[in-house]
Amino acid sequence: MTDKNPPPLRRRIFLYPGKNSRKVCFFTLTALWVFFFWMWGPLGPFNLGAADNVLFSSKWWFDTLGHAIAGIMLIFSFLYIYRTPQRVLELERDEQKHEILILSAKITVFAIAVLWEVFEMAVDWYINDYTFAEFKHNMQKGGADTTLDIVATGFCGWLTAGCYGLYKKRFRIRHLNEHFEIDKKIELIQALTGEVLDDLRVLRKEDRKERMVKLKRNARKLMKFFKKKSRSMGRP
After folding, report:
1. What is the Cα–Cα distance from 72 to 158, expressed in whole angstroms?
2. Which of these, 3, 87, 134, 220, could form a disulfide with 130 (CB 3.0-4.6 Å)?
3. Cβ-Cβ contacts under 8 Å for 177 (sequence gap 6 or more)
4. Are 110 and 75 in contact (CB under 8 A)?
5. What is the pLDDT of residues 85-127, one digit of tens each?
């Protein structure tokens, strides 16, 4: 019997994280990104973009910390977007595809770090109305800061992705027997399905309909189970 007075959405999300893991991840990542842009953004309380940050000053260290955190959050955001419930089982079973996923995440973080620095330079050029000579001079002056920002973002992103890949690899090795047993059962189901379909072809139409109804009923139960489990396992 269904509950006529279900709890509010926020309680359903956070009280039952296994059933709503992607929702929990989405709200968590959104809250973290909002906090990040408030803290390190151009309109943040520390006014990081108002003046040139002297290398290794307290303001520069805080800005570099922001780039490092951005690299970590970009990795988790990439994993959240890519590891959908439809892909998660395939990635768990195929080690090569999982390695490609980790490599893609690393490349994406590095590319975003470079594009962000280009965007910052373009904004500085537009806001300060530099001439080309002034813009070139500022680029040379801030070259070290720009390079270190890219390194901080890329290094922390790569380190996070590497740790995640190592964790998943060890998890796969630890549960290798479980995966092997599941694979054997899936292969058995596939073989039996082929045999059943071959046998159905030789039956009379009336007998075939009766058995097809049973197969469809079991298939619906199986699909319902898959949908339920894929939602609970679709966590990055």
Report:
1. 8
2. 134
3. none
4. no
5. 667 666 766 778 888 888 999 999 999 999 988 888 887 777 7
DSSP 55: T
**What does each C-alpha distance from 137 to 86, 118, 146 come to in angstroms?**
50, 15, 14
Output 179-188 pairs: Cβ under 8 A, ≥24 positions apart. 179/92, 179/93, 183/93
234 secondary structure, DSSP code: -
Q: Could you tell me the two tokens for 185?
A: 């059962």
* Helix H or strand E encompassing 221: helix 205-233
CA distances from 29 to 81, 88, 105, 164 (A): 11, 19, 16, 17
Phi and psi, residue 2, nearest 5°: -75, 150
Treating both helix axes as pointing N-terminal to C-terminal, what angle do 143-174 and 176-201 enclose, rounded to 10 degrees? 70
Q: pTM of the prediction?
A: 0.64
Work out the number of other CB atoms within 10 angstroms of the CB of residue 172.
15
Dist CA 236 CA 83 (whole Å): 6
Q: Give the whole-angstrom CA distance, residue 20 versus residue 233.
A: 9
For 18, 32, 103, the CA distances from 76, given in Å and listed in that order, are: 18, 11, 14
Domain boundaries, the chain: 9-41+55-233
Instruction: Identify whether the C-beta of residue 109 lies closer than 8 Å to the C-beta of residue 155.
Output: no
CA dist 72 and 164 (Å) reads 11
CA distance 236 to 74: 12
